[in-house]
Amino acid sequence: MTPTDNISSSHGEDDNISRLTNLGHPTQTMEKIFYTVSPIIWFTTALVGLLGLIGNVLNLIVYIKLGFFETIHICCAAMAISDIGCILTAMWLGMTCFSPIVQSLLAQYRVQTDLCLFAGFTGGWWHGAFSRTTALLTAWISIERFCASSVPSE
User: Fold this and answer.
1) Can you say whether the dihedral through the CA atoms of 105, 27, 121, 39 is positive or negative?
2) Cβ distance 96 to 102 under 8 Å?
3) What is the C-alpha to C-alpha distance for residues 101 and 138, in angstroms, rounded to an integer?
């Protein structure tokens, strides 16, 4: 190995290091990805949430018209209400955290805040409560249906 080989290999390593450092800071790259993907997430959340709201409102109307004479009607109406709350809070989280409109408004007024932290504080706790209530109602309806089919009343 000659001394020039050693110099060329160290120059190659420096060249690789300079290529890696020219990529930019990882945080800046992640911010670019976030701002590129966030309108898509916001639109998808709004569209799916709107469809879910329409479906749950229709369910609620049907169960109200059927009346609350049977326990399954009461449970399903309660689940529709809980799902409506869950969808509204999910839409709030998506709207505040990923909305380009909210981001541009805050940039216009030069407000420095973490939108995802704000959204989690104002809607995340409610979303957790509504989704746990929905899960509890699903388990309740399953147990009720199991008991009704295994031990039918006379």
Assistant:
1) positive
2) yes
3) 36
Question: How many CB atoms sit inside 10 A of residue 46's CB?
Answer: 15
8 Å CB contact between 120 and 93 = yes
pTM above 0.85, yes or no: no
Over residues 83-140, the pLDDT tens digits come to 999 999 988 887 777 777 777 777 788 878 777 788 888 888 999 999 999 999 999 9
Task: List Cβ neighbours of 113 (8 Å cut-off, separation of 6 or more).
Answer: 106
Contact call for residues 99 and 49 (beta carbons, < 8 A)? no
92-108 tens-digit pLDDT:
887 777 777 777 777 78
Residue ranges of the alpha helices (H) in 22-124? 26-66, 71-98, 100-108, 115-119
